[in-house]
Amino acid sequence: MAGRLRVNSSIYSWEDTLFLVDNQQTTLAGNPWNFVSFDWEQKRERKVVYTNRRSGRPRGKTRGKYSIPSCTAKMLAAQALELKQYLQVQGLGSYGDAEFTLTVQVSAPGIMGARPLTAVLEDVTWDGDKPGFEEGVDELVTEITFGVLSLTENGLRLWSTLDGWDA
Fold first, then answer.
1. Residue range 126-149, pLDDT digits in tens
2. Helix (H, G, I), strand (E, B) or coil at 51
3. In principle, which of 44, 98, 109, 113 could form an S-S bond with 91, CB 3.0–4.6 Å?
């Protein structure tokens, strides 16, 4: 996750991170979902609208188009296989067809006043992967590309909640 948050001079770290797939903390085998890395980008593209004003000042902006252009993760190869197997069942034979919810939660239980950081990624699909095998002492990981339709961070949204047509 980008940036660090300090609470009483303590910084949240990777060890404080919990991942939930469809609100499940563990795999079918009972292991926690272990990601090696996880990141995303979201944006809302808007267009500045001009009309025939003498000042040349813009009239305003459009509501824009929301998107999550990238959401990538790295998992240990064995765990990536477990996630594929879970999604294979959900997708009725194709792990790429399964839609699921992915929750990333960061909390520091021992730090007084620390608020948990929670990101809920919805309508997530597995869009691609790149297994990595190389000689050396590094662990075997699989890079995963997820497709995500919406993201809510601590109850806050970049996308507009004023949808009148598709409530």
1. 999 999 888 887 889 999 999 999
2. coil
3. 98
Give the whole-angstrom CA distance, residue 155 versus residue 26.
24
Q: Give, for 159, the enclosing helix (H) or strand (E).
A: none
Cα gap 83→96, rounded to integer Å: 11
Residue partners of 132: CB distance under 8 A and separation at least 6: 77, 140, 141, 142, 143
> How far is the C-alpha of 70 from the C-alpha of 157, rounded, in Å?
17
Greatest extent of the chain over all pairs of C-alpha atoms, in Å: 68
Q: Please give the structure tokens belonging to residue 56.
A: 């040349």
Q: Name the least confident of 20-24, 74-78, 117-121, 136-140.
A: 136-140
Closest of 71, 83, 4 to residue 39, by C-alpha: 71
Q: Where are the domains of the chain?
A: 6-45+62-153
> At a CB cut-off of 8 Å and minimum separation 6, what does 63 contact?
46, 160, 162
